[in-house]
Amino acid sequence: xxxxEQIDAAVAALRRGGLVAFPTETVYGLGCDATNNDALARLxxxxxxxxxxxxxxxxxDTGDLVEWGRDLDDAAVTLARECWPGPLTLxxxxxxxxxxxxxxxxxxxGLRVPDQPVxxxxxxxxxxxxxxxxxxxxxxxxxxxxxxxxxxxxxxxDVVLDGGPCTVGVESTIVDTxxxxxxxLRVGAISExxxxxxxxxxxxxxxxxxxxxxGTLSRHYxxxxxxxxxDAGAVGAHAAGRLAAGDRVGLLAPEPxxxxxxxxxxxxxxxxxxxxxxxxxxxxxxxxxxxGLDVLLVVPxxxxxxxxxxxxxxxxASTP
Length: 320
Ligand code: TXA
Ligand code: MG
Hints:
Bound molecules: threonylcarbamoyladenylate, magnesium ion
Distance between the termini: 40 Å
Strand content: 15-25%
Mean pLDDT: 95
Number of domains: 2
Oligomer: single chain
Structural class: alpha/beta
CATH superfamily of the largest domain: DHBP synthase
Number of strands: 15
């Protein structure tokens, strides 16, 4: 449990222009005052992230949408009403209060009201927007525990709020509501089917390339171990080949895990279903590095519902 004093200390750090890592339902964020340019500069430097990549502004309440966005399309209003608080980021035209440093100079801003008790307590106590990318170094695996944050960013963060493991485990769905029809820029816990349903069937998907949502690079979310995607039926032969070549080889596969696997293959604790796969995905990628694996063979889940988000992250993690 988080105590009020910890929230107070975090708010004080934000007001001083400091950096506060906090849990959300998706992944841990590295937050700062979204209107403080010096704090934003420190945020980008700490992440080692190019300043042209926009960050998401987290808001205390759905009603704040009209303060941080302008000329809202119906899609933005509908999705905010139906999905916030929750794992959905809305790209809208930005209001005058959003500084260039948040958006990389774009005329649009990504906004989200998260659904996590510590995040919501922090946002309510701060009472304004908190800019927060995922609390990992640029290009690496996103953190889903406070220990992950400390391991990655350590002393460069002023306060780390520990809210336990993130429930969802993969980043929010991003929808650009400034185009007609609206477009999904990043797949996440809120499925394409659900977005389409809420928007009367009208939604595009623009998840390829890095132009739509700068930072959704084709290679991303990568552990040090080489990630290779394989079909369940091909795991045994593939593993045997790699082991024979002298590699330290691991396997991440959902239940039912293929049988008759070669000795020496390190089988990581398998997820039971797509939701659990999302929940443990980044922990397993981190485990692969902790175990010193050279190669991680991965059987992705079926790309339906949140399984699509897991498959997307695995595709990017496996891009050489
Ligand atoms: O679940 C999440 O969204 C987490 C938690 C902390 O909220 N945050 C997160 O932030 O994943 P980050 O910075 O790792 O990813 C933000 C993505 C980037 O790909 C960025 O390009 C996109 O959001 N984005 C932000 N503002 C945008 C804008 N105005 N237009 C297009 N894409 C935008
Ligand atoms: Mg990120």
